[in-house]
Amino acid sequence: MSKISRTDVAAAILLLLPVVYLASVYHSLADTVPMHFGLDGKPDRYGSKKELLGVQALMTGVGIFCYLLMKYLPRIDPKKSARYSAGTLKKIALGTVVFLAIVNAFIIYSVSGGKTDIAGKADLILPLTGLFFAFIGNAMNSIKPNYFAGIRTPWTLESEATWRATHRLAGRCWVAGGLLICILTLLLPAKASMIAFFSITAIISLVPVIFSYQYYQKHKNDLS
Fold first, then answer.
1. What is the DSSP track for the chain?
2. Which of 212, 152, 200 shows the shortest CA–CA distance to 176?
3. CA 71/CA 26 separation, integer angstroms
4. For residue 1, is it within any domain?
5. What is the pLDDT of residues 44-76, one digit of tens each?
6. Using alpha carbons only, how large is the chain's radius of gyration in Å?
7. Where is the DUF1648 domain (predicted)?
8. Could you give the number of structural domains in the chain?
């Protein structure tokens, strides 16, 4: 059985903070609270405050799953190369927990009487998501081939050279795209912010996949 590290303790505290926050304000919540937001950032569906408990449980569960996956990936990866990325995976795991904890806390804040325009200039979810993308991009170049983390296409998994080239490009795309999301969603109005967010996210997700195919096809004779 592995020892509990300081990182494990920090992750547990971060995951519990939104739970404590919700418990402290739950009694003061209205019986009906915003549960979904449209492209304009305004709430377009309301539900019982009990639904918020389910959202909280889901977000916390996602955080736990992501953290444990990154923590134990070096042990379960069939390629056994993920152990060379253990430090990077640990950093990604903790960064993911930090991001989810902040989003969780903001959701609770927004339904407890705070600002509910999730795409407005004053809120931080979309800019923070952009910074999170940039954080992931900065770590991409250090991730070794594996079946769980990174740009996993048939071509990157087939060729280590394709993996390296793809992740160099993906890292730059995600850093640049993430910073662009952060800047634009702070400056643009709500609807334009959402459009910019989804457009940039689609681009930085698709470009590395297309590149991995093209790189593999171009160099497959050299890679064989």
1. -PPPPHHHHHHHHHHHHHHHHHHHHGGGS-SEEEEEE-TTSSEEEEEEHHHHHHHHHHHHHHHHHHHHHHHHHHHH-TTS-GGGGHHHHHHHHHHHHHHHHHHHHHHHHHHTTS---TTSTT--HHHHHHHHHHHHHHHHTTPPS-SSSS---HHHHH-HHHHHHHHHHHHHHHHHHHHHHHHHHHHS-HHHHHHHHHHHHHHHHHHHHHHHHHHHHHHHHHH-
2. 200
3. 32
4. no
5. 677 777 877 888 888 888 888 888 887 777 777
6. 20
7. 13-59
8. 1
Looking at per-residue pLDDT, the higher value among 32 and 21 belongs to: 21
> Is the distance from CB of 129 to CB of 118 less than 8 angstroms?
no
pLDDT digits (tens, 9 = 90+) for 130-169: 999 999 999 988 888 878 788 889 999 888 889 999 999 9
Between helix 6-25 and helix 86-111 the angle, nearest 10°, is 10
User: Rounded distance, CA 123 to CA 103, Å?
Assistant: 11
The residue with greater pLDDT, 36 or 75, is 75
Give the residue numbers spanning the domain of 11: 6-223
> Is 161 part of a structural domain of the chain?
yes
